[in-house]
Amino acid sequence: MNAPIPPTLRRPIRELPDELISQIAAGEVVERPASVVRELVDNALDAGATQVTLRLLAGGVRLISVEDDGQGILRDELPIAFKRHATSKIGSLLDLESVATMGFRGEALAAINSIADCAILSRASGLNDAYLLDGRTGELGPVARSQGTTVEVKELFYSTPARRKFLKTDATELAHCIESVRRHALARPDVGFAIWHEGKLVEQWRRCLDMPLAEAPTESALAALDQRLSDVLGPEFLAQSVRVDWHSSQTNEYDQPALRVWGRAGVPDAARSRADQQFCYVNGRFVRDKVLTHAARSAYEDVLHGHRQPVYALYVAMDPTRVDVNVHPTKIEVRFRDSREVHQAVRHAVEDTLAAPRAAAAAGAVDGQPQAPSLLAQPGAYVQRMPVAPMYSAQPAIKFEADTSLVGHRVSDVSALWQRIPTPQEGWAAVGSAQVKEEPAQRAGDTEQSPLPPSRPANHNNEEAWPLGRAIAQLQGVYILAENSQGLVIVDMHAAHERIVYERLKTQISLTAPDGSVHPLASQPLLIPATFAATPDEVATAEAHVATLNTLGLEISPFSPKTLAVRAVPTTLAQGDAVELARSVLAELAQHDASTVIQRAQNEILGTMACHGAVRANRKLTIEEMNALLRDMEATERSDQCNHGRPTWRQLTLKELDSLFLRGR
Questions:
Q1: Strands annotated E in 84-179
Q2: Cα separation of 353 and 193, whole Å?
Q3: Could you tell me where the DSSP H helices lie in 245-308?
């Protein structure tokens, strides 16, 4: 072993040799064979390739070859390609501040060439001659090749054998290389990709668009993207996701949306235990960004159960000058000029898309059209928000009595069940908790002339169009059984009603007053303030967000330079741990903007209120009440899950029922 250098021994300052500089840079850029694949595929896409072929040996350790049919490299430019900071992507600071290409740093090839044996074969477009450049010797000679470029990297880490010891098995490295190409393939349906390993084709994704993605019409681009997502992630991803297409009202100088979010978001039923199917792209570049990840997760906050992870492929397009990609050597991290704007855009895009009730898919599930989600298969197909049938507002006047001996309500109480849903202009006069009962001016049931309220709207032709069908029974006081055109629908009445009450409370409680001010939540002063030792960040956050804390019903003030005192908490959380609540809110405020924290805190409080306000198990409902609940579910956003993320209903089709009883066999 080398003897340690005595601390008193002075070492002179000197310039490092170029090869050592490149090897140090390679330590940042090249972590494993997949890092080389990412850089080379970036260059191929920047060259305008429509077909990229990757060939590997030993998981990429012995050979990485990337072939493309792009513009190629001119003979005079080939010797410069392996020099440090040599690139065709940028030439000035203005170019650096508006990078629109995948690569731009100009150090990847030099870094890779310093730790491996590299060669470039290229034929520029419009020329008849191709040339081969040896990265080790610098020799340049003629070679046979069609238009495009091939970069070969052999014996990776041969000059730094210590780095090779950190590599995993060939199978593991191959999986990482495939994942790297897969990330590129998801963003470029206009390019075909093929991966060969040890002479065998392991993955191939054909070109889905015969023109550049940026030039394609919107519908063609979205259709091509759907096809590529199906090819790469499987048809199950497409079946269990819904299309996202959102754009800002502001436009750029080319009369295009200044910010656009599109892609596909998986339905809550498709959530996984791992976050291995979450793909975020900014201007075509795969990134790992906390702003985007948090925004997407926030959109799923009250529809996912436990610690399940959503699946999605989201694409953000914006002016390159508003995003800095020169943050990390691997270009996998970005920094937004206005991160709040991007966060809100992604959150609203996903949130609004998931808001459409999945039950609407059953409305057109006749004559071979898409069917409702199955209890056994659970495909989870969402549809875009649209009118399904004439919807009726259910149970704005229902009051669930504490006396469970009652079988149901008086007939007169049900007269308000079948009211048209008010338009946004009319407002939600009857929105509120289940405990709030709106007394009519005259009880129709008080006179014998009052007609019997129907268990469904008078128009019987609409009965077949009801996505959740008509109620037929209640099971064990917990589940509602309903019949629709597909078969049997099973509804968890507590979970369903909990979501309905929750959404009504969110609609009822407005965060802003007409003058733009924010309505604070009701708070309760503590008889004895709860004090706790705070970090400098917590003290600074508490002092900087006094108004936000008051809006949340919290009063937190400095007790000493290193201690904070909680003097008031929200009324609905008065029995909780005040210190823990204060710490969590301060941590949220330190990471996210105030409006996001206010909305999340408010939703948590409303969720608690909705859970206590929803109808409980073993509560007997009449057929009219069951039908009212079903109609309300069809008209309520996110009614497929309760606010804890549990499913509210499942479909058991006639085909599945027949299979259970072996009919037709």
A1: 117-123, 130-134, 140-143, 148-154
A2: 31
A3: 290-299
Nearest residue to 615 via CA among 394, 390, 422: 394
User: Buried (b) or exposed (e) across 560-580, using 16+ Cβ within 10 A?
Assistant: eeeebbbbbbbebbeeeebbe
First-to-last alpha carbon distance for the chain, in angstroms, is 76
Q: Angle CA(20)–CA(26)–CA(28) in degrees, nearest 5?
A: 120
Helix (H, G, I), strand (E, B) or coil at 599: helix
**Tokens standing for residue 482:** 């309903």
Q: What values do phi and psi take at 369, rounded to 5?
A: -80, 165
Instruction: Dump pLDDT digits (tens) for 61-95.
Output: 999 999 999 999 999 889 888 888 788 877 788 87
Tokens standing for 45?
A: 């896409």
Residue 590 backbone dihedrals phi, psi, to 5 degrees? -70, -25
Separation between Cα atoms, residue 491 and residue 480, nearest integer Å: 5
Bridge partners of 205? 193
Query: Which sign does the torsion angle of CA 288, 291, 296, 300 carry?
Result: positive
Burial pattern 296-323, b for ≥16 Cβ within 10 A else e, equals bbbbbbbbbeeebbbbbbbbbbbbbebb
Provide the residue count of the chain.
Answer: 665
Pairing of strands 278-282, 312-318: parallel
3-class secondary-structure state, position 638? coil
What tokens appear for 583 in the block? 């710490």
Three-class HEC string of 466-482: CCCCEEEEEECCCEEEE
Residues 203 and 193: their CA atoms lie apart, in Å, by 8
| Residue that wins the pLDDT comparison between 211 and 434 | 211
408 within 8 A of 622, measured Cβ to Cβ: yes
**Of 380, 363, 374, nearest to 466 (Cα)?**
363
- At residue 449, the 3 state secondary structure works out as coil
Cα–Cα distance for residue pair 206/575, rounded to 1 Å? 59
What is the reported pTM? 0.69
What are the strands, taking DSSP E only, across 38-155?
A: 51-57, 63-68, 117-123, 130-134, 140-143, 148-154
Give the integer Cα–Cα distance in Å for 2 and 458: 91
Q: Within 13 A of 130's CA, how many CA atoms are on the CB side? A: 16
pLDDT digits (tens, 9 = 90+) for 623-647: 888 888 888 888 888 888 887 788 8
